[in-house]
What does this fold into?
Amino acid sequence: MTQQLSSSAQKVQDALAASGVLLQVVEMPQSTRTAADAALAVGCDVAQIAKSLIFRARETDRPVLVIASGNNRVDVEKVAALLGEPIGKADADFVRARTGFVIGGVPPVGHAETLPTLIDEDLLAFAEIWAAAGTPNAVFRLLPAQLVAVTDGIVGDVKLPTKLSTKLPTDTP
Ligand code: 5CA
It folds into this structure.
């Protein structure tokens, strides 16, 4: 049985179909607004959630899409170096205006305009991953190679190094 999708989720489903991939958007009863919510809802590791984060290029004012593994934080300096332009944070209004989607549902495809896209290389290690599909409770499952193909993204190192310890040496007894 095929479920009736909300219009935002249908936009993502249509964009996927137009790319020629057989992927199915699903609307969950639970929230998938954050990576942690999405992992809980679909029953995968949070690292397998492909977070679609929008940044704002400082010189050209264009939106930039960074797709990161759910438990990584994005290093804006690394993204700027790959892009060749400094970037800053985007606010909720900018995200909605330039992608056509609200934060918590921003998908990797189907945006109002074509976005330069960078993909966290850590996502390539998984057999399957999950991405947002236009609303805070819509997602779809895909292969990492399909994410690269449908977004035409550049795969690279975009993550902040993880802190090994927050303790100062003086904390040690
Ligand atoms: N649906 C899930 C993944 S399937 C999802 O969209 N998760 S997310 O992490 O990609 O989206 C939430 C992200 O939106 C946060 O990581 C954060 O970077 C961003 N965000 C949250 N609140 C704001 C805000 N007020 N302004 C700008 N960005 C925000």
